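User: Study the fold:
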Amino acid sequence: MNRAIRWAAPLALAVVLAVTLAHPAAMAQTGAPEGGASAPQAAASAPAASAPAPSASAASAPAASASAASAPAEAAAPAVPPGQGTEYTEKGADTCLSCHDSESDSAGFSTAAIFKTRHAQRGDPHAPFGKGNLQCEACHGPGARHATKGSNKKSTINSFKPTSFLTVQQRNQPCLGCHQDSVRNAWHVGAHDRNQLGCTSCHKLHSERDAVREKTAQADVCYACHKQERADFQKTSAHPVRFGLMTCSACHNAHGSSSTAMLAKSTVNQTCYSCHAEKRGPLLWEHAPVVEDCTLCHSPHGSVRRALLNKSPPLLCQQCHSQAGHPPVARTPSGLPSVAGGGGAGAVYMVAGSCTNCHTQVHGSNHPSGAKLLR
């Protein structure tokens, strides 16, 4: 044990001398005395002394790399804000077609189909593609921001879709800005505008044939919302809409009207008279409900009874005409004529056309003796 202690002190002194000779600067920083240090202090200072001091160039390297990293960020273009903005593209439709080409078309949409419509007629000065007009941007609005690389495409253009960031009124404004006439001037008082329908809910602009303007296809567009009317037109007695011989717009103005049910004419009767002119009159002997409102007796969209009647006679007639003092009564077993094996004492006039067996001129008569609409 004494031998180990005697050898430890000279060995520690030798280690300190070796470190001092190899790294005099490190020893100066640690504040070690010239005469030496104890073994524990020398061992603690050895790792720190062995690490070389960083040079000035090495210390400036991170700062240089940070400035280099910030350079691209400063050079990058600022983010494109949402909204359309007010700037138009320099090349008009050519800019649009560089992206919206045949490869971007879908099964139900074709960009190039616009060139087969009236909107793309170069000879029409009122058309979007007329000479000097804004082409695609006449309807879709300023497109410079939309065409900018990195912009949000959906929030920088009027797409006319229900998912657009624009309101229905804003989407419709390009259409209503041009299509101003007596047919469309009541759009804002119509049911379609009140129910937040866009023009493109019915119309297809990028299509050679707009279905809602086709006589045989218009009803299918209307049926997308008007389910009850679809069912009515399938009934046994109905206007020939399902056969393509008549359109919904023959009676209704889809672009708005101040009359009931957006009728094309001011009243129900005036609308009916546009086809049924023989019922217009004036007549010597008039039938009050005919003059007042055709729908008091008829269901215009369809009925399971003949002549689109709301009810079958005599029930229809007896809504106004009392049966008292008149042979026919309501169609019950006791009111029908007597037949073998049953029946009652009702008049034979109850069968077939019922009241109209005698009162043939229910819409009015010009006969001097036609007060009862019998002739």
Observations:
- The radius of gyration is 46 Å.
- Residues 1-5, 24-75 have pLDDT under 50 and may be disordered.
